[in-house]
Structures are given as structure tokens and as C-alpha cells.
């Protein structure tokens, strides 16, 4: 076929989505346009009638909001990916035993802890939740430097502006200037879920096929290469 | 050459050029008109108009983008009716041009306004005494005399449009080939591991284009100024 | 065609209240700085809307504040010649000249471009930009531009004031030609007596926003009471006819039968021209003087003597050539025993009749 | 009044005012100098300087932020040595001011440059003939004459600084009370569902401040212009 | 103090090559437009660096291209009075006046502010801004500003050209006072003969970038060959002493024993002053004329007669008062049989000696 499909996906999925789109195009001959931006920007655009067919959000809040407003096809919704949040530090840093006993504030040694916006951006929200669960938040909070997205937080660590940061495992995977020094327990924060769904306004016949492809083996391989946990079953 | 950057990046470059060019050309007449009104007319609400024109300079670009999305989107109070008559901005390159044009508008108006304020109204009066109606006076006397300022304003606006990101991505998203401009592409590359190299290349392209435009504006501006002065 | 103007206007400290008629030819608005000349011209042009007034050419009303008529500037069909030329710098001389032609009604008697260019001697300049012209050339082009707009009225606000003497001398003849060859009335602002004497058909003398005198140039300029710039600038106008051109570079004129010699004028024999004799340059003698280098001696009878505040006195002499004014010291008046009715001679140096004053 | 917005929001407002004010005041001397150099001197590399000054206008703000982070961050080639002498920008409000100042710089320079180009060099020559050395000529003749332009440029820069977001958050992050400016706060509110109401309030505050500054600039500019002209 | 100037410079089509000395008093650079006057002044001021030359005041070298000396403008200690005043619009009159004082060396003979203000009559203006001044007032402040900079040399480039006659008359006396009361040499550019006659101590006549004559004013201005603006402007300078002030508003002067009457001058009896008698205003008579209104008659002997191209001739008359020039027609020269050595009388109208020419 030579159909066309528009996918709104969280910007952090760019590398994986590039691979998947290419694979899908090669397999089916259909073209996929992937618009990458912050989940909130995409969700608002959908609220305003954006001509997208499929939305993949980096968190459940915005997807829930769209579902409540009837903007997505609830039946098509599924949890596509999971992720972990990790503590990163400059290359060669000693591992940290993440738990209630670690004294993160001391480890920072006056430096900053880079995170995404802790009230607004999913990775930041998860990170804050974990630190709270581990009883670290109050001591660390004054040292947190909040970036507008995860990548910016990672960059702060990569360029040495901050000694440590909290980012997604998927972000840390390919940054040569940092090491993952610990992974936050999955139960210390709400589940990190990237839900995908078809928009109610879309009558694109390719939707179902693409959603299926996302669950497929090739997509799984691509996501895993980028450090995501794939939740969706084929 | 094409291997230096991925093809989508080139298409972002091409789209940005198209978007910036149209943004500049289409806002130019309105920019000249607004600048003229602000420079020459005293009317109630002049301060307000001046403020409105400057608004995109003052607001965080994302806010401007949201305002555009809310008003000009398919469901917006302006976007809906406009769509009925076939004018669609949302999620089209035209919308990217609209966003870029609005963000660049204050810069354009400032430059043109200053050049209008430098035109001696006596020459316009002279044209009127010779029988020229107001519009004709503008077209045959004022406009040629402010041409250097108009060119400077237009090219500055073009350069600014080439760099516009926040309002654009918020209003028309980041759809490759349709609304993915150079800055959006740079943003996307910066969002993932390993994208920096490509991002740097795109930044270089963007700087080269904008610098070229600026240099051009200084050269053309000086040449036209000399031509207008009749030297 | 006659322009009739009635205007009332007040600025903070200044009130204008004038009414005058400007017939064909050059009507000079004459008065010292601040007397309201520019204000009048601007009101006629429509660049200023006066508090009250009426401006019309023959029956065609351009402004009537009572009838609430006020044509916008571009409908008034004017040719305004500005002091500073105001050529369009971005247009060539030719384009400047043609600027007004687009807007002139098709029916208007159209000045011929060729003739105007010819008359003003600007043929070789047509392709140039104004920046490449001398001050005098620029002013000539401005005259041409105004003429070619097919105006029903020409306005000129001190068109020569910005020029030095040489440039003035270069332009004056063109205004004379305008006066003599073009039927459009011309309102001309000036405060230079020599210019007024040379150009004016009609003079409207202004002082502090009021008309202090109006009428034919000869009459107004010969009346020292009306000359607003003071007696120092007074002078008489004489009408003369060219009699002969002599080989030694002089032209012989006849003013009412009195022979007068001036440096060669370009006019043909029989042509009529105007001479201005400044009062300060006339010497009086009771006896007919002999053996003087001055060639021009006009016999006459003292008509009036007015003494000023200073050491001076103004003597009006009735001569066959017309009225001549002479400014003397009171001492001389006494010494020569000058009284009304006394016969005496006015002595004027040949070369004292400068070319600007011959018209 | 305080209840209308959460206290952190008010502290963001206060911080933004402080940051913008300092950004404007500190960049002003350099802005005047740069504008003077571009307007009056012919030197090799003039085109380059002009380009550099315009760069923040042209680049996506995030890129400017990254460049700042790379060069002025604690490990950056400039930031490191500066830190040694006690000058730290990273994660400080001073860094926010630096970012805002750089982003606003082209606007400031443009406005001042135009006013310098309008000063008659003959007055400066007159001052020199009276014995005034070059710097004194500038301080006593040029500067007072361009004051309206300087004020216009400064207030425009202030308004722009109030709205600066991308470069600031990229360079100094968002630390409430230290680097959380008004636009960062607005951005944060816009990221979560339901944050619009608070965002709108902050946008209103931001617009009010910037508009006030603009109006002020028109008024002051006109008054100073009249004073300078001695009317 | 004497300024010595030697300059060579070439612009595209124009070459300047001059050398002259300017002693104390006013040295007028006199020449028609384009003769290089401004170029010289600018080189002296340091606003233009000439191809070659040397400029020094007494031994103090400001420029010596061979020795590679070129003081920057602000080190030259000048008082430059510009044609257009160039007051600082943002400063009050007082601040304008004081501008240069900061930079004058402490040791410099400091002009007294009070005296300068007094001399120029600008006391009531001190608090005003330049925009609130008339053209004449502005120029007076400019003079004061230049003086108060404690200059070693004053430059004035046509400081009166932008003013109308009334304003000129208002300023000229201040330059005379400068000349007479201040010891600083003044380089003064002008192309108005009346101004030159009135002010110049020394005249440097320029033509096409060359000096065609230099020397004391009397000598240069009395020499029609040197007058670059042509014979029409020629005139003689006479030195006279005030004898008496008469009740009828006239002052009686004596020039070499010849009585001359002029409108009341402000100078006290016994004061010495200069008169200019324009050649075009002199009438000659072989016999001593009687019964004329003109009060001033100078007896003399014809010294030389030069005929020009036109109808005119220039006659030099040697009188007890000094050399007087008269411009006549050739016809008169023939009719009166004027030849070198012939005795005759120069008749000058009292009022023709206008106040500007009495100094
Ligand atoms: N816009 C204005 N506001 C206030 N007063 C004005 C205005 N225009 C002119 N005047 C005053 O009106 C009077 C007449 O001015 P006008 O320009 O008509 O004089 P003028 O005869 O043309 O003088 P000049 O020979 O100097 O050009 C003057 O006293 C002037 O100060
Ligand atoms: N910067 C320049 N470049 C080329 N030619 C110049 C320049 N400045 C002056 N000239 C030429 O040098 C000549 C002398 O000019 P200058 O200004 O010294 O004359 P001036 O005697 O002051 O004349 P004016 O009385 O008109 O002021 C003129 O022919 C002029 O065109
Ligand atoms: O999907 Mo994002 O980039 O963490 O908002
Ligand atoms: Mg006037
Ligand atoms: Mg000159």
C-alpha cells in the first residue's frame, strides 16, 4: 500500500521511533510521519484537533486526560513501554546503593542533582516520588536543579555542571560521558508507563496495523536497544 | 553533501527556508502598514497596538504558541471559521509560517518604523501639492525612501523566523516534511542519546543561512540607501 | 484668473486676518519675518486649515469654512515651489518633472514638457538625480515640476532665499518668464525688496498678520509709508523702453523721455522694462550738475519730504520718468534748502542700476 | 493578592524582575560600546562582530543555552577559570541574568546603534576642537544625545529578558527561588493537565510588567528626547 | 603670536598649495567658493590631515608632516567657531560656555567667564538651552565657548554666512572686539567683501587653492587685481578719526584732513576707525561739485585707470585720505577725459557709507 500515518510520540522515543518507522515503511510501503515533542504539547494539540492517528505518551496522566475527554479510542489503548529511573554520575563514579540508607545529599557534596521538572515533567515526578519514598527528598530538595526535560537534565551531568542526575534508563544508555550508578526500585515510584492509543478522530485504516507492529518483534528489539522495557505483548 | 546530514534534516532545512520566506513576505505589507501607522498616526489605542505588536517579543514563545493553538487551531474561534473558507494553519507549514511571522513581527515593525520616522514629511507634502492622493504619495515617495529600512527589517525577520522554535512546535507540532523546521529538528536530535552531532550540524546550517541573510541585508541596505539618496 | 483669499487664523501669540486678491501675474506677499507670509501660503496650499476663511480661483472654491468646503491638498491643483526645492531624491530629474502629470485632469491645459525644459534650460539634466544638481539647477527643476502639474495656481515661498547671489541671479529670469509667458497666477513670498521690485505685478504688503497695503507693484513700492522693511530698503520703480544698444557695452533706455544708461540688457530695442532705483543711491542737486561721471540725471520737482527718527530724510521727486525717491541726511535737506515744489536733479550712477534691478 | 497566586509564583515574579533588571543594567555598557563600534568604526571583523551579536536572535534559544552551559558551566573553558576568581554563573540567578542578557543583547544593540547613527559627528568634532579627549567627547556629547535610544534599547531588552525561557532553563535549570523565573514557572504549569489557570495568571503578570516597561520607554524616550533637544 | 601655515593637499580634482603667516588680529582667508578656505581651516584644526605641510604657532608645532608630528584635534588648543554654531543642544548656555575650560592647561591664560559674558552680552541667556536662542544669540554663545577654551588660535569658518543681514550686523561688533581686545590670532574665513573690510587685519586672498595675495587689509583690499571676487566688489579702506558728534545725528570724521560725515558712530571723539568705500558707489567730478546732497567730497589725483571686459573701468584716485577706487563706465571716462595725473573729486553719499562699513 501507499498509505500515510501520523504518529504523535514523546520526544524521548525519537531513536526508537526512527528505526520502527523505517522498518514499518520497508515492510508495508506505507509512510509514517512521527511528530516528536513533549507529551504535554502533543496532548494539547490533540485536544485542539490535531490530525494525528496515534499518540504515544511518556506518561499516563495526559493519556488519561485524553481518554476522559473521549479523544482517544479507549479500546485501542495499551501500555507499550516501561522504563526505569536511574541515578547517573560522571564517567567512572562509584556505584551507589540506592535505598533508604544512602545519603544522597552527602554524596552530592554541595553539587547539584539534575532532574527534570519535579512537578511537571514525568521523569522528574517519578524521581521525586522515589526520593520521597526513600526518605531522601527533604535533604536533597534544595540541591535539585530542574531541567525542562530529561535530556537537559542528562546534559547537565554529561557536561559536568552537576555531579549526579536522575534520568530514564533509556536516556542514560547511550551517553558516553556518564555512568549509571544505581537504579531506583520500581516500587519506589508509580509505574513508569508509555501508553499508546489510536485517536477517536482518526479513521485511518492503517492504525490497527501500526499498533500491532509496535507490539511486534522488530519494534521490541528497537525499543530494547534504546533501553526501554517493553510491556506490550504481541 | 546529502550524506553529511540525513535526508529528513535536509527537508527540515528546505521547509525552514520556505516557512521563513513566506513568513517574511506575507507579513511585510502588514509590517509596513503597522510601522507607518505607529510612526505617523495619532489614534486612540495606539499604545495598545504598539503593545500587541511587541507581545511575541515579551511572552515566552511557548505561550505565544499556545495562544495560536487555542485561537487558530481547528477548534479555535478563528481557526474554525477560517477553515470553513479553506484557510487552514493548524499542523500545516502555513501555520509554521504564521507562528514564525508573528514572532518576527516586532523586529520587522521596529526596523521599518525607525526608517519611516526618518523620512521628511515635507517631501510627502510636496507630493501631495503636486496632486498625488495619499496612497500614491506613500507608494511613490515614502516607500522608495524607506526601502533600506524595509529590507533590513525583512531580513532581520527572516533570520528570526529561521530560528523560531517554541511557538512553532507548540502550534503546529513537529511533523517531518510538513511542520518540522530546522529548530524543531534540532530539538528532536537533542532529545535522544547520540543526537548531538546531527544537532550541531543543523545549528551550523541555520547559522550560515541567517548570517548570510544578515550580511546581505547590510550590503543591500547600504546599496539601496545610496541609490535612494541619488548618489 | 484671479485668486481671492480671505483668511483668519490664530496661533498662540499671533493672529492672522487678511483679505486680498491676486490677479494674473506675480502677486508678491511682502513683509518682514513673522508677518504671516508662510501661514497664508500654507493655508492656500491646504497644508494648514485656518480658523475661518475662503479661498477661490475665479469661482472655483478651494476653501470655505462657512460652507464647510476644504479641498484636500492633492485636489487643489497647485504648483508649490518650496524654498528648499524638495525634489524627490530617489527619482531622476525627468521623473520629478513628470510627477504631477499623472494627477492633472485630462482636460487641463497641459504644459508642454519640451517647452518647459527648454524655457528652464534643464535639457541636459533630465537623466540626473537631484543630488547631482547645483542649488540653482535644483530650483529650476522645482519650478518645472510645479509647472508641469498643470496647476491653476503657483505658490512660491521664498524660493530663492536659500541661494547665494549668483544662484539667485541665475533663477530670477525664469520667474520673469513665468510671469510673462504663463497665464497662471503666482503667489510669491519674499522679503527681499530687489526681488519684489523685479518680479511683482501686484504687491500685498503684510505686517503682523495684517495687510498694510496692496496694489500694483509700482504704486506700493514707491510708497515709503507702505514699505514694511523700513526706509533703508525703499526705492522707486520706473518704466522704461529700450532705445538703443551702444558699442561701449551700455544700453540706452528712455523713461518718460529721460535718457538712462544701463549696462547692456538683453532686451530688443523697443522692449519695455522696469528699473528700480534705490532711494539710498540717489544724490540730489539743485543745479544741473556738469562734468560728473554719473550718466543718469533726472530733472524733477520735490513732491514731498518725510523726516525719520534718525539723521535721514526721504525726498520724493516728481520726474518725467515717474516718482523717484531719494534718501538724504537732514543736514543736506537744510543745506540745499529743499522744500516741496523746488526743482532739482536726481543723480544716479550708471552702474548703480544693478542688473537685478533691471527687468 | 498573595492568595491569587501561590507564593512560589510570586517569588518567580520577583526573581524575574531582578534577573531582567540586572541583565539589562549590566549589558547596557557593553551594548552601548558595541553599538558605537558598529556604528562608527570600520575595522576588520566588523561583519563578524555584527553576526555574533545577532546570533542569539537567530539560534533556537535552547542552543544558546547549551552553548552557555558548555562554555560557562563549572567545567567549561570559561566557567572554570571564572569560578576560580569567584564568579559563578551556573545554577545561580546571575546565570539566569547572563542568559537573559545575551538573548536580549541584539535587540539592545540594534536600538542604540540606530540612535548613534543619527548623531551628527559634527557636534563630536566641535567637542574635540574644544580640547575634549575622545572618551570625554563620548561621555559629554554622544551619550546624552543618544539617551532616548539607550533607554528604548534598555527597556526593550528588559521586556525581552522578562520573557526569556529556553536559554535560561537550559543553562541554569529551574531552582525555585534561585533560578525559577516567570517563564520557567509558566512552562512548568503548562506541562501538567490542569495547570492552565495558574499559567494564565502568570502570563498576565508577565504581560503587565513588560507592557508597563514598553509604555514607560515610549514616554521616557519622548521626554528625554525633548530634554536633549532642549525644547 | 603668529601662526605660520604651509599646506599641500590634493582631492580628486582639487589641489591646495598654500603658505602664509597669520599675525595677531584677524587674518581673513578670502576667496570664492571652492578656493580651499575650509580645507585650510580643517587642516589647521586637525579635522583633516594634509598630504604635506607644517602648522605652528610661534615655535609650537601642531603639524609637521616631515617630522611626523600631528597633534590630535583635542590637543591643538583651538577655539573653532563654526558657521552653524554647533552648540551642544543638551547643555545650557552656561554649560556650553564652560565646556572647553576643563581641558585648558592650568597654566593657560584663562579668559574670564564674567568678562566674556559681558562682552558678548549673553548674561541673560546663561540658563537657557540653545534651542531657545535666536540665530544671532547662538552665534554669540559659540564665540564665547571658543574664547573660554583658552585657545592659542581661534578659527572661524564663515561664522556669519548662515545669518540674515540683521543678525550679521548684530554679531560683527563682537568680532571687532575680539580682534581689538584679545591677543589670540584669529583665522577667519569669508567671502563677503564688506565683512572682510570691516574685520581683517591681514588678508590672505585665495584662488583655486593658491594664495594670490597676502598682506595688511588696506593694501590687499585696495588692489583691484587681487580682489578675487571681481571688480564689482572692490572698494577702498580709509583710516579716519572721530572729530565731533553733531546734533543732527551725524558724526564728523577726518580722513587725512578731509572731513567725512557718517550716521552717528558709537566711538568717542578721537577714536580711530576704518571706512570702506565701495568702488561702485563713488561718483567722480572734474570740477568741485556744488549744491549736491552728498556731503562727502574727496579731492584727489587719478593714479591709474584699468578697463575691464564690460562697459566698466576702475579708476584709482590718490586722495589725502588715502587711495579711493571708483568704478565708472568707459563712456564716462572718455566724456570726462580722465587720464593719469588729472585732478578730480570723488563724491560719496553720506548714507552710502553704511554702518557695516564703518568700523
Ligand atoms: N505652528 C505654529 N504654532 C504657533 N505659532 C506659529 C506656528 N507657525 C507660525 N507661527 C507664528 O506665526 C507667525 C507667522 O509665521 P509665518 O511663518 O507665517 O511668518 P513668515 O511671514 O512666513 O516669516 P518668515 O519670513 O520668517 O518665514 C510667527 O509669529 C510664528 O511664530
Ligand atoms: N572631501 C573632499 N573630497 C573631494 N574634494 C573635496 C573634499 N572637500 C573639499 N573638496 C574640494 O576641494 C575644493 C575646496 O573646498 P573647500 O571646502 O576648501 O572650499 P571653500 O573655499 O571652503 O568653499 P566654500 O566657500 O564654498 O565653503 C572644492 O573644489 C571641493 O570640491
Ligand atoms: O516525553 Mo517527555 O520528552 O519526557 O515529556
Ligand atoms: Mg516663512
Ligand atoms: Mg567652506
Automatic annotation (TrEMBL), chains B, D:
UniProt xrefs under Pfam families: BPD_transp_1
Ranges that cross the membrane: 20-39, 51-70, 82-105, 135-159, 198-217
Cited InterPro entries: MetI-like (IPR000515), MetI-like_sf (IPR035906), ModB_ABC (IPR011867)
GO cellular component: plasma membrane
Keyword tags: Cell inner membrane, Cell membrane, Membrane, Molybdenum, Transmembrane, Transmembrane helix, Transport
Residues of the ABC transmembrane type-1 domain: 13-215
Gene3D superfamilies: MetI-like
Subcellular location as annotated: Cell inner membrane; Cell membrane
Membrane topology type: Multi-pass membrane protein
Domain of life according to the entry: Bacteria
MF GO annotations: molybdate ion transmembrane transporter activity
Function: Part of the binding-protein-dependent transport system for molybdenum; probably responsible for the translocation of the substrate across the membrane.
Family: Belongs to the binding-protein-dependent transport system permease family. CysTW subfamily.
Record-given protein name: Molybdenum transport system permease
Organism phylogeny: Bacteria, Pseudomonadati, Pseudomonadota, Alphaproteobacteria, Rhodobacterales
Gene encoding the protein: modB
UniProtKB/TrEMBL annotation, chains C, E:
UniProt KW Membrane keyword: yes
Taxonomy, superkingdom: Bacteria
Cross-referenced NCBIfam families: modC_ABC
Gene Ontology MF terms: ABC-type transporter activity; ATP binding; ATP hydrolysis activity; molybdate ion transmembrane transporter activity
Keyword Signal annotated: no
Coiled-coil residue spans: none
Gene from which the chain derives: modC
Residues annotated as domain Mop: 291-357
Family annotation (Gene3D superfamilies): 2.40.50.100, P-loop containing nucleotide triphosphate hydrolases
Keywords from the UniProt entry: ATP-binding, Cell inner membrane, Cell membrane, Membrane, Molybdenum, Nucleotide-binding, Translocase, Transport
Protein name, as recorded: Molybdenum ABC transporter ATP-binding protein
GO terms under cellular component: membrane
Amino acid at each position: 500500500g501507499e498509505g500515510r500515518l501520523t504518529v504523535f510520540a514523546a520526544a524521548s522515543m525519537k531513536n526508537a521511533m526512527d528505526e520502527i518507522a523505517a522498518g514499518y515503511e520497508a515492510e508495508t510501503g506505507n509512510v509514517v510521519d512521527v511528530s516528536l515533542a513533549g507529551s504535554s504539547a502533543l496532548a494539547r494539540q490533540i485536544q485542539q484537533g490535531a490530525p494525528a492517528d496515534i499518540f504515544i505518551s511518556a506518561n499516563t496522566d495526559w493519556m488519561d486526560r485524553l481518554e476522559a475527554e473521549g479523544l482517544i479510542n479507549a479500546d485501542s489503548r495499551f501500555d507499550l513501554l516501561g522504563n526505569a529511573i536511574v541515578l547517573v554520575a560522571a564517567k567512572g563514579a562509584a556505584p551507589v546503593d540506592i535505598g533508604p540508607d544512602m545519603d544522597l545529599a552527602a554524596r552530592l557534596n554541595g553539587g547539584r542533582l539534575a532532574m527534570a521538572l519535579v512537578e511537571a515533567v514525568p521523569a522528574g515526578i517519578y524521581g521525586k516520588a522515589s526520593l520521597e519514598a526513600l526518605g531522601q527528598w527533604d535533604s536533597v530538595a534544595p540541591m535539585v536543579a530542574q531541567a525542562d526535560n530529561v535530556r537537559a537534565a542528562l546534559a547537565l551531568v554529561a557536561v559536568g555542571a552537576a555531579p549526579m542526575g536522575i534520568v530514564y534508563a533509556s536516556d542514560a544508555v547511550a551517553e558516553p560521558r556518564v555512568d549509571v550508578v544505581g537504579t531506583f526500585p520500581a516500587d519506589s515510584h508509580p509505574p513508569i508507563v508509555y501508553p499508546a492509543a489510536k485517536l477517536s478522530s482518526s479513521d485511518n485504516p492503517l492504525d490497527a496495523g501500526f499498533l500491532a507492529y509496535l507490539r511486534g518483534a522488530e519494534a521490541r528489539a528497537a525499543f530494547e536497544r534504546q533501553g526501554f522495557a517493553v510491556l506490550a505483548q504481541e | 553533501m546529502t550524506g553529511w546530514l540525513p535526508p529528513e534534516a535536509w527537508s527540515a532545512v528546505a521547509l525552514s527556508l520556505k516557512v521563513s520566506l513566506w513568513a517574511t513576505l506575507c507579513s511585510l505589507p502588514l509590517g509596513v502598514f503597522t510601522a507607518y501607522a505607529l510612526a505617523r498616526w495619532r489614534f486612540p489605542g495606539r499604545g495598545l497596538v504598539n503593545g500587541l505588536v511587541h507581545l511575541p517579543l515579551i511572552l515566552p514563545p511557548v505561550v505565544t504558541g499556545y495562544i495560536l493553538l487555542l485561537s487558530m487551531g481547528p477548534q479555535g474561534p478563528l481557526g474554525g471559521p477560517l477553515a470553513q473558507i479553506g484557510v487552514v494553519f493548524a499542523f500545516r507549514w502555513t501555520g509554521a509560517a504564521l507562528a514564525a511571522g508573528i514572532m518576527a513581527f516586532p523586529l520587522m515593525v521596529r526596523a521599518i518604523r525607525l526608517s519611516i520616522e526618518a523620512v521628511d514629511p515635507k517631501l510627502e507634502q510636496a507630493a501631495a501639492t503636486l496632486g498625488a492622493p495619499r496612497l500614491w504619495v506613500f507608494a511613490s515617495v515614502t516607500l522608495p525612501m524607506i526601502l533600506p529600512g524595509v529590507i533590513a527589517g525583512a531580513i532581520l525577520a527572516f533570520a528570526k523566523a529561521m530560528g523560531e522554535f517554541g511557538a512553532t512546535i507548540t502550534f503546529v507540532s513537529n511533523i517531518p516534511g510538513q511542520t518540522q523546521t530546522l529548530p524543531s529538528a534540532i530539538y528532536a536530535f537533542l532529545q535522544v542519546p547520540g543526537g548531538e552531532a546531527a544537532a550541531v550540524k543543523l545549528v551550523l546550517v541555520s547559522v550560515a543561512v541567517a548570517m548570510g541573510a544578515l550580511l546581505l541585508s547590510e550590503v543591500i541596505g547600504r546599496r539601496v540607501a545610496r541609490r535612494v539618496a541619488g548618489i | 484668473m484671479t485668486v481671492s483669499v480671505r483668511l483668519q487664523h490664530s496661533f498662540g501669540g499671533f493672529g492672522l486676518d487678511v483679505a486680498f486678491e491676486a490677479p494674473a501675474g506675480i502677486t508678491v506677499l511682502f513683509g518682514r519675518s513673522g508677518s504671516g507670509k508662510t501661514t497664508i501660503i500654507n493655508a492656500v496650499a491646504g497644508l494648514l486649515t485656518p480658523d475661518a476663511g475662503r479661498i477661490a480661483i475665479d469661482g472655483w472654491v478651494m476653501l470655505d469654512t462657512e460652507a464647510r468646503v476644504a479641498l484636500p491638498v492633492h485636489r487643489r491643483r497647485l504648483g508649490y515651489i518650496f524654498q528648499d526645492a524638495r525634489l524627490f531624491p530617489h527619482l531622476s530629474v525627468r521623473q520629478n518633472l513628470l510627477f504631477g502629470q499623472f494627477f492633472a485632469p485630462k482636460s487641463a491645459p497641459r504644459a508642454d514638457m519640451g517647452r518647459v525644459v527648454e524655457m528652464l534650460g534643464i535639457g541636459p539634466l533630465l537623466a540626473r538625480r537631484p543630488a547631482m544638481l547645483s542649488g540653482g539647477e535644483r530650483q529650476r527643476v522645482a519650478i518645472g515640476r510645479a509647472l508641469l502639474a498643470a496647476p491653476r495656481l503657483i505658490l512660491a515661498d521664498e524660493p530663492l532665499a536659500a541661494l547665494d547671489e549668483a544662484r539667485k541671479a541665475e533663477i530670477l529670469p525664469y520667474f520673469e518668464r513665468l510671469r510673462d509667458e504663463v497665464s497662471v497666477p503666482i503667489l510669491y513670498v519674499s522679503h527681499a525688496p530687489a526681488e519684489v521690485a523685479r518680479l511683482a505685478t501686484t504687491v500685498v504688503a503684510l505686517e503682523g498678520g495684517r495687510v498694510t497695503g496692496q496694489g500694483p507693484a509700482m504704486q506700493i513700492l514707491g510708497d515709503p509709508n507702505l514699505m514694511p522693511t523700513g526706509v533703508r530698503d525703499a526705492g522707486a520703480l520706473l518704466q522704461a523702453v529700450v532705445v538703443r544698444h551702444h558699442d561701449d557695452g551700455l544700453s540706452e533706455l528712455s523713461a518718460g523721455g529721460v535718457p538712462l544708461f544701463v549696462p547692456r540688457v538683453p532686451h530688443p530695442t523697443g522692449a519695455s522694462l522696469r528699473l528700480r532705483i534705490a532711494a539710498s543711491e540717489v544724490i540730489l542737486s539743485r543745479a544741473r550738475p556738469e562734468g560728473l561721471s554719473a550718466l543718469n540725471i533726472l530733472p524733477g520737482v520735490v513732491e514731498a519730504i518725510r523726516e525719520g527718527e534718525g539723521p535721514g530724510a526721504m525726498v520724493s521727486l516728481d520726474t518725467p520718468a515717474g516718482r523717484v525717491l531719494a534718501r538724504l541726511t537732514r543736514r543736506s535737506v537744510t543745506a540745499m534748502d529743499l522744500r516741496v515744489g523746488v526743482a532739482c536733479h536726481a543723480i544716479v550712477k550708471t552702474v548703480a542700476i544693478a542688473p537685478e534691478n533691471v527687468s
